[in-house]
Design a protein that fits this description.
There is one protein chain. With 294 residues, this protein is mainly beta. Helices cover 0% and strands 46% of the residues. The protein has no helices and 32 strands. The chain has strands at 2-6, 13-15, 44-46, 52-56, 58-61, 75-77, 83-87, 90-92, 99-101, 106-110, 113-116, 123-125, 129-133, 136-139, 143-148, 153-155, 158-160, 164-169, 176-178, 181-183, 187-191, 200-203, 206-208, 212-219, 223-226, 229-231, 237-244, 248-250, 257-265, 271-273, 279-281, 288-290. Strands 3, 6, 9, 12, 15, 18, 21, 24, 27, 29, 31 and 32 form a twelve-stranded parallel sheet that branches. The protein is elongated. 44% of the residues are buried.
Length: 294
Amino acid sequence: GTLNAVGTATDPIIFTSIKDDTYGGDTNNDGTTTTPAAGDWHYFEIYGSSATANLDYVTIQYGGYTGTSYDYGMFWIDDNAASVTVDNSILQESQYYTVQIDTGSTSTISNSTISNTAGRYGIYITGGTTTLDTNAISATSSYGVYANNASPTLTSNTITGSTYGVVVSGTSSAPTITDNTFTGNTDGLYVASLSSTSPTIITDNTFTGNTYPIWMGTLTSSLTLTGNTGGSNTYDVILLTGSTAGDFTLNGDNDLLYAFSGLAVSSGNTLTIDPGVVVKFLSTSSNLAVVGTL
């Protein structure tokens, strides 16, 4: 079926806890005995190949209950959801993932605020076609966005205050991450693993006030890593660890320098370093091991 929840800037639509007296008054008639908290309700699910949803100027909060044997994101775009659009909205205060996006779904979230203060992910993506555009994303003590074997497109988002701003993991992951701003995260962008064949694009992002702006756990021949800039991070570097999964060139097209923590050039792979590129070793345990070709 179809859900149309279209509010306005002055008259938003609110999905919240029965304990939330801020909207609609004291509905459970207990004065100040109860107050709203993350996990007051379970989930809001969009599911199935005929399911579509259009949410504009909507607030969803205080859900994501984790006291059952099945935990789901507060706003859950389930397998094969046909089309979900969220714009100009606020999704916050979830006990579990604030947003969960599953395989086969098609979704766009834009101009919205997504946050999590319960130590869970702001947005967890396991597949589908996902576009995140011009959002403010944060997850205290956790991951702002976690793409697990998924290939979302992230453009012009501001990602702040998370342990990891964005995490990419899984050998079928091939995201496009462009023109985003990463501020005040422990690690801005952490790439644990990638597809070795599908194109991954990490370009023109800005990093300030993070510990490590970009942490690459692998390098592949299908990776484009250019135009990324930063300053006032603990280390103004692109940190290279793990092992290569294809040929790669360290170019001079990023404002951030490269730093080796412990990188292995795998057998059959070639690592090329362009003229003028500066590479630094991070610590006394840092190393570069060439099994392939340098």
